[in-house]
Amino acid sequence: MSDLLSAFDAAIDLVRRAVFALAAVTFVIFTVDWLVRTRRLSPFGAVARFFRRVVDPLLEPVERRVVRAGGLPSAAPWWALVTVVAGGILLILLLQAARGVAAEAMVASHSPRDLFRMIVEWTFGLLRLALIVRVIASWLGWSPYAWWLRWCVVLTEWFLRPLRRVVPPLGMIDVSPIVAIFALWLAETAILAVA
Q: pLDDT tens across 133-164, in order?
């Protein structure tokens, strides 16, 4: 039991070190690329030619998004750095969450009642997460039928559709997700009280 948790701790520590090293290396690379793009380094030197040939093709997708959003192409290295750091932090947080889930599952496996409580809490937690992701995606104008958002539609539509028939929108605001989160909380509380 503790072997699994210590393996998680070792993996998290290794990933932290790797993310820090990657962030440091990308900081140096993207700083030099930014210096070349803003012509603070000679655009005709060997360093500039190397970066235009090797680094700029890697930054091209980021540059396109930055320009589409109204930014300057010279900001692409900084946005790429932000993406690397944010992705690393997200990976570390996911590993820590997986460690917490493993620890909770190990503790709950000793008693059927605790195991039932854990499954109920996880189920309702997943439904709440799906609702929150769906609401945020709608605020950002993302299609709920995008391949990476379909899971939250599948998990929530079965109880949002009947709620929308009963709960009228407030102007242009659909309040059914708020009512659904409250209803999920009530249902979870009732189930755990019985257990």
A: 998 888 888 887 888 889 998 999 999 999 98
Q: CA 112 to CA 8: how far, in whole Å?
A: 25
Contact 124, 187 (CB under 8 A): yes
Task: Please state, in angstroms and as integers, the Cα–Cα distance from residue 50 to each residue in 36, 45, 81, following that order.
Answer: 10, 9, 19
CB atoms within 10 A of CB 118: 17
CB 93 within 8 A of CB 86: no
Long-range CB contacts (within 8 A, 24+) of 28-36? 29/55, 29/77, 30/55, 30/77, 30/78, 30/80, 30/81, 31/77, 33/59, 33/77, 34/74, 34/77, 34/78
Contact 35, 58 (CB under 8 A): no
Q: What angle do CA 41, 42, 44 make, to 5 degrees?
A: 140
Domain extent listing, the chain: 1-109, 111-195
DSSP one-letter code for 175: -
pLDDT tens digits for 99-121?
888 888 888 888 888 889 889 99
